[in-house]
GH3 auxin-responsive promoter (Aquimarina spongiae), 509 residues
Amino acid sequence: MEIIGSIVKGVINLKGALSSEPNHIEAQEKVLLDLLKKAKHTEFGKKYGFELILQSDEIQEDFAREVPYFDYHQLHSSWWRRVIEGEENITWPGNPDYFALSSGTTGKKSKRIPVTEDMITAIRQAGIKQVEALSNFDLPASFFEKEIMMLGSSTDLKEKDGHLEGEISGISASNIPFWFEGYYKPGSQIAQIDDWDKRVLRIAEKAKDWDIGALSGIPSWMELMLQKVIDYHNADTIHDIWPNLQVYTSGGVAFAPYEKSFNKLLAHPITVIDTYLASEGFIAYQERPETDAMKLITDNGIYFEFVPFQPEYINQDGSLMQDAPSITLADVEMGQDYVLLISTVSGAWRYIIGDTIEFTDIERAEIKITGRTKFFLNVVGSQLSVNKMNAALREIEEKFDTEIPEFTLAATRIDNEFYHHWYLGTDTLIDEETLANTLDKSLKDANKNYKVARNKALKGVKVTKVPVELFAEWSGAQKKKGGQVKMERVMSEEKFSEWEAFISQTISS
């Protein structure tokens, strides 16, 4: 029966019609004002003079002048360490009930990021905004009766020192509203299984009992899960199991590298909607089908600042120089990569989240993620960002009609000369030398700094092909399988040596 779906769709359409577009610049000014007011009596607020900033006629300018940039390690060592130890009123009033564990893409040691009740509320409100945006997509009423497969990390949160810990997807899933529980799959029991492979096996076993209309999760892990379900049931595509699947809500990384291999798992195209949910908060979501850009959520507990992503502002390790200039939403420009800074209702302040973005529509506050600051390869001046790497690989896919969903690379030295050594996750029959030459030419054509580097200190490009599944196995070996885990696109020489040893050992065994 579609009557329930028709009612739900009607409510969403009505809510969407009644909702007005916020003035994003004014909304951001109000968010900063609210953050400063609420945190002015915290230890952080006292240290950086929030009360004085609040008396200023130029609050945004004074806030930027008085408060330094913080990456995770700086904020942890100076402030969040005390929050984790149970002290109250450090960077946000009270003490959080949750900590999001995030290994990110580098290092084996988990980061612990505070998640306050204010942030839980903000994430829930952002989720509602995203649901309301479905009114802009041409979806039938029957879709709104189907179940949603949310493939995140385990909801079996660990209790430690009076608080609960887990990845943000697990924390969010454990706080879903009661009315959503009937739609949510794989359900609380399976979602609590900590071992990713065992959880996926249980999903495969139960798959035919569910009528899945939408998927949500990181593309690399979603692909693996779908393939496991297909293989378990000896099916041709996932639509043989879930014929009503119509929507995939992607997030965490760009979907484009996975598009060709993902679509091979489907009987027909589905609607792909991008989101930007990080351990630090729900930052943006795709609001309309005309673009795959995402709208910054400017009125929901996160204040944004932007630092032009220029080599002179970035240290060799990807960190941000303290004298780098920042701007507000009012001053951003098109065609410029920015390092994203956030201040949040979880007590993050001028926090370098690690992503770079560019604006595709300033009036709508729509962005695309262009890469990671630590994935910026600038050895010998090549100035390669992840979006340039992705673009070059998409050209190769098109030219050779192949798929390259995974890759990693490093600047390596051979006889004291620098080479870019790429590992491509692909089963293409194209030989490695041809792939290397094509990749090199594409990057030269698209990036003048790379071309200059190739004529000087950067001597060449090497390509090694490996099976795609080895990238997931590497994550598993790093104790980071599933959930929010993203593959390192650029590695240090030391990390790259570990990667090569892992590949050699895995293939030989």
